[in-house]
Structure formats: structure tokens, C-alpha cells
Amino acid sequence: MSLSRNSREPDTTTEIVHEQSYLDLLYRKLDTEREVTARRRDEALRGQAETPQAAAERDASATMYGERLAQLNSVEQGLCFGRLDTQDGQTHYIGRLGLFDEDADYDPLLLDWRAPAARPFYLATAASPDGVRRRRHLRTLSRTVVGLDDEILDLTAPDQGHDLGLAGEAALLAALERRRTGEMSDIVATIQAEQDRVIRADLGGVLVVQGGPGTGKTAVALHRAAYLLYTHRRQLSSRGVLVVGPTRTFLRYIGQVLPSLGETGVLLATMGTLFPGVTADGTDSPEAAEVKGRAVMVDVLAAAVRDRQVMPDAGAPLEIGVEGETLRLDRDTCARARERARRTLRPHNLARRVFVDQVLDALTAQSVARTESDVFDGLPEIPLSANESPDGEVLDARDHAAIRAELAADPAVRAALDELWPVLTPRRVLADLFGSGERLASAAGDLLTESERAALLRSAGGAWTPADVPLLDELAELLGEDDTEARAEQARRQREERAYAEGVLHILEQDDEIIDEEVVRVRDILDAELLAERQQLRGDLTAAQRAARDRTWTFGHVIVDEAQELSAMDWRLLMRRCPSRSMTVVGDVAQTGAVAGTSAWGDVLGPYVGDRWRLRELTVNYRTPAEIMELAGRVLAEANPELRAPTSVRETGTPPWRRGVDPAELPDRIGSIVDDELAAADGGTVAVLCPAALRPALSSAVHTTATTSGSPDRVSVLTVNQAKGLEFDAVVVVAPEEIVAASPRGYNDLYVALTRATQRLGLVHTGPPLPALSGAAELPGEPVR
Ligand SMILES: Nc1ncnc2c1ncn2[C@@H]1O[C@H](COP(=O)(O)OP(=O)(O)OP(=O)(O)O)[C@@H](O)[C@H]1O
């Protein structure tokens, strides 16, 4: 059953007047809190500190007040959105954060939506009212109450409940019918019971949230992050929370949700950004992406690293010229050194020290023997004295050490060591491996076929791709990080910060001189060292920001959206970032587009947590109207007959349309199609979703039209992959038959495309229409080819 508007407005304006006066009180309270917090932060910033510990405490206070102020500022819009009246006569207001009355024993004036006492607002139903008599949604515009929606939770009241068990229908419907802006909004006022249970699930372990398109998985994932940070702040704020999304466009789309909920301790990232210093903006062929994502790449990379630990050929020792002498390293000596180094089980760059030691020992022995024989060379036989043995050494331990040190510093010896056991970076190993058919053949052995290896070959200097990132991460583990460079970089940054601080003090002092001779000089209370330190503290405000720069950072909780797209190698990287395995995995196996992606959660999680993961399902589609979901359901049946599409919460009365267009005419025709949709969407957003090959031509045609009609910001032309997780008021899917043909998961891709629409869907086919889409209404006068 779908939702129809069922708002029951209170009959008098008295209620609104009453609520307005309460809202005024809340905003007065908010304003006061802001002033007090800003004052305390400023006092903390000005505070003198005699000891480093006092300085650290002062800085921590300043940071805390700063964060609280940001939070107080973020809740300006929609501060209070709900009210609960309980059967025992109490009233609670629910809002974006908690406000308390200091003068009345800290009675709550406003309950934070995440507080346990606020929970019945989301869970109570007429059948199970949980002590609630009435749930009220307040509609506000800035600081003004503009409307109310009441629900009396009483089974005898008319129009209560229906088979979807929705809470706050009228407010929900109003939220769902709002035109899309290109930025996701929070759903804090209208979270539904099945969503609430996911948001408030326990922190520990892996929680999988499986749900069809539009069931609010992304919204729920973000609200869960906010809930966890509120409930487990101490545990999570130092390690931070990581949210992984499919594309940068998607991250921009969701970017405002957490700040609007007052949370900043979350790092939003795509898989492609999780190796600091690498920009993965290249694109792989589907085959290359699939091969790179396979778990077997772990063995291929380990072999590629081993291949870099080279030995001289048997019978052809490496000759090293040192000060006119030739030292020789034969295969056996090198093999023994390699064996010793490998047996340490240390990563390549760290095991190198053992290899180098062994080789230097061997070279030193050779050099010593040579020197000793040289000492006597050409000298007449000198008889031994009574206490000398004929095998006695001429050079003592100190001489040996000196020879060894000279050898270690000798450029020829170093070059030989670099050849045999080079210091390696992940980028160098991967670039060399994918740049050479020979290296690939050696490392992959029987693990990959010839054509799979060929798919991995890339031209020198080519861009990194998102599928390379987990491989680089794996290599970083196999190689071990030599942190000499990082330490030098840190020292350099400290020097820079000190220089900057000196500059700041200089400017402030000039101000002091201009303003007042009598005031305390800034240098009297702050020296450059301290200011530099504070700069650093403030520069690295949140755990999320520090985590973004540090590959080895481990997070307190990891949330993965569109998780069905992740490959086995992606999962390895994420598990490394989350050793506690406190994770929320959000996705839909029916929407898997990547060939390396998943069709069963147990398959990807099993290697890490066995069967110790919990599954929650979301079943109601809040985005896509029933008319469109009916068509999408047929496409899903082609892709995965065993899966069921979620139930739409609403109908629009507008069925999807279809029309055939000659491929040659497509760029000319798409303009007027988009024009029609822009008009029908009435200020909303329009997306043209098409196969990658058509995108450039369609983009330029659509851009011209949209610019002419003055709405370029409302129109996008995207591939299905780029549209993952996004939504638009009107969607036009071009060449659906090509989308289906382009990939083994083509019907899944088409399912994703159809379910991006919140209001209208059109299909433009350039060949015979797919039978699954024949339910769409053929536009009059437009023959379908
Ligand atoms: N309880 C709710 N109240 C209001 N709006 C909601 C609610 N739940 C979901 N929505 C809205 O429904 C739309 C779909 O939500 P979301 O993008 O989170 O779904 P999804 O399951 O991640 O979809 P997909 O898998 O297709 O990307 C969004 O506009 C979201 O704001």
C-alpha cells in the first residue's frame, strides 16, 4: 500500500502560537549557549600556561569549546522538529541537539534525537504506542513555526497505521515530495522504525544493512555515524569514523548531512583516496578492474616483491670494483644472505638490513683476506717469533670494522646492494609490474592467464586507478615503510610552523604597538615555539583529518556504502583500517555493477569474521514511486529472479514513458527531451543516464540546451556507474538495451539507472525495446522502432 497525504492539521492556530512561544524559548537558550561557549573558547585561547601540560589542557579546552560552538551553529535550521506527549501527561520536545535548563535542575528543554528518551518518537505506533499518546511534527521555517502534523497513537482513532508501519506519515510525505537540490538532506525528523533499529544498533562487530534502492541505506549509514559518535564519543572521537562511498560526486552529494547534524569527526572517502599521496583518477577496463580486485593478487604481489630480491647467475659472480680491487659476490653467498633475510619474515625494506649485513660480512672477509695476503706480498719470509702462530691474523677486530665501514660507504658496493635487494616503494613495484609483460609473467605464474595478464599491462606514466589503490596498500605492507623520509618531512613542517609562528608574532606585535603601548604584549604570553605547537594542534583538529594523511591509521568504526561494489582486495584494505572489526556495511546485492563486486555478503566477510556478522534488512523504498518500481521490478527479475524489489512508499500517478530514436538523431533529439523534462520537473533536477560511449556527445548537446533554458545546474549527463547512490527528480535512460549488453551485470546496471528517479522516468531506446521495459507507456506519435 502506498502513502497518500494524510496530514491532520490542528483546527486552531492556538497550538501554533503555543509552539512558537516554546520555540522562541529554545532559540533564546541556543543564543545564550553560543555566547557563553564563544566566550569560554576565547578565554581558553587567551589563557596563559606555565607548563607544557597546562598548555595542552588549555588547547584541549579551546578545541572542545570550538567544536561545541560549531555544533551549536550547525543546528540553526530545524532546531526542534518534534514533540511527544506521553500517556502519563509528560511532554518532550525532540531536536537536533540537547538543551537543558540550568535553573531547573538541568531539566531537558530539548532532547537530542539520539538520546534514549527520544526513541519512542521514531518507534511508537498505534499498535505499540510505548507510552506515547501523541506524536507531533513541527514544521518550521527559520525560527518560525509554519505548521503541525499530529498523530494520536490510539487504535480507535481513524486513519491510523497501515501495512508499511510508517511513523509521521504527513511529515514523511512532505519530505519525500520535496524537489531535489543535488545535495542530500538529513532525515532526522522522519526516521522510520526499521531505519531507527539500524541506526541505533550496537557499535561492536560487523553489521550488514541490505536494502533495495531508495530504502534509505545512505541516509541511515550517515545517521548511524552521528548516533555512534554521540553515544560512544569518548571511544570514537580519538580514532574517528570512516565513511566510504562509491565516487567523489557521491561524497559531494552526501557531504552536508553530517555537518548539518553537528558532526565533524568523520572522514568521507572513496576507495581511490585511501592511499595518501595517490590520486586515483584513471579508469580501468572492466576486465582489468576485475582481475586487480581478485584475492589472488595478494600472491601475485608477494611474488613480484620476491622477484626484486635478485641473485647473480650461477658461475657468474657479481664483480664489484673497490679502490682498484675487484671483490666478487657469488650466487651461493647471496642466496644464503637472502635466506637469512627472508627468514626474519620482515617486510622487504626492513629485511634488507639483514641481507646487507650478510653481504657486507662476506665482502669484508674477502677484503680482509686480500689485505692480509697483500701485507706479505713481496716481503722476504720473516721467521715467526715464539708466541706467533702461522695462522694468526694480521688485522684485528678494529681493522675489520674499519674495512666493513668503508665497504658499506663505497658507491660500488651500495650500487651492488641496490641491484640485489633494492629499497622499494609500492608505486615503483606496481608501475614496474604492470609495465612489463615479463615481470607479470614471472610474478603471476599460473595464477593468471595470459589474457588476464595482458589486461593488467599499462603504459608507463599512466594514471593510477581506484583498483590500484588496494594493491598499493598491499605492497606497502609487503615492503614495509621506511619512515626516514616521513620523519624528515615532519621536521621540515615543524620548522615551517615555527617560522610561520614567528611571522604571526611579528605582525601581532606591530598591532600591539599601534593599538596600545600599555597592553600585554603578545610575546609576553606566547612564544613562537608554543604558538607553532598550537598551530599544529589546531591544524590537526579532528581525528578524521589526521587519518586522511596516514595510511596506517586505524579507525574506531568504518561505514561502507554501496559495499556491494567492493572487490576482495578492497575489503583487505578496509579490514586493515579497522582491526576492531566495528563496521557497518551498507549495500544491495541487486545493484552490483562491478564484475569484481559481490553477490553474497558471506563470501566477502567470511575470510575476516567467519559467520560473526549481523544482517538487517530495509524493505521500504522512499525514493522511487510505485509506477517506476513496477517497471524496475521486472528488470530486477531478469537480473536476479530470486530477489524482491522494495515496496514504494508513494505513488505519483505518472507512469514511465518510452520512445524510440534513431541513433544518428540522438544528439539532436536529446535537447528537446531534456527541455520537456526540465519543464515537467518544475524546478527539480534532471539526469540523462547513458552508456559511457554516448556520454560525450549527449553531454555537449544537453549542456547547450540547459544553458539556453537557464538551468545548467539542474541537468546532469552520467553513466550508470557515476549515478550510483544519487537521485534526481526526472531521469531519462538512453539506450537501455546497450546498458544491458555492455556488461555481464547489465540488467543490474539498468535496475540502478531506473531507480534513481524520485518523480519521473523516461526511456529512449535506439534499438528494439527490451521486453522487460515494454510496460512503459509509448509516447503518442513517437513510433517505437
Ligand atoms: N525516513 C526518511 N525520511 C525522509 N526521507 C527519507 C527517509 N528515508 C529515506 N529517505 C530519502 O529517500 C531517498 C533515498 O535514500 P538513500 O539515498 O539513503 O537510499 P539508498 O538505499 O542508499 O538508495 P540506493 O541504494 O538506491 O542508492 C533520499 O532522498 C532520502 O533522503
UniProtKB/TrEMBL annotation:
Family annotation (InterPro entries): DNA_helicase_UvrD/REP, P-loop_NTPase, UvrD-like_ATP-bd, UvrD-like_helicase_C
Q: Where is ATP annotated to bind?
A: G211, G212, P213, G214, T215, G216, K217, T218
Q: Which GO terms describe its cellular component?
A: cytosol
Give GO terms: molecular function aspect only: 3'-5' DNA helicase activity; ATP binding; DNA binding; hydrolase activity
Instruction: List residues of the UvrD-like helicase ATP-binding domain.
Output: 190-625
UniProt-listed GO biological process terms: recombinational repair
UniProt entry keywords in alphabetical sequence: ATP-binding, Helicase, Hydrolase, Nucleotide-binding
A Pfam family it matches: UvrD_C_2
Q: Where is the signal peptide?
A: none
What is this protein's record name?
A: DNA helicase IV
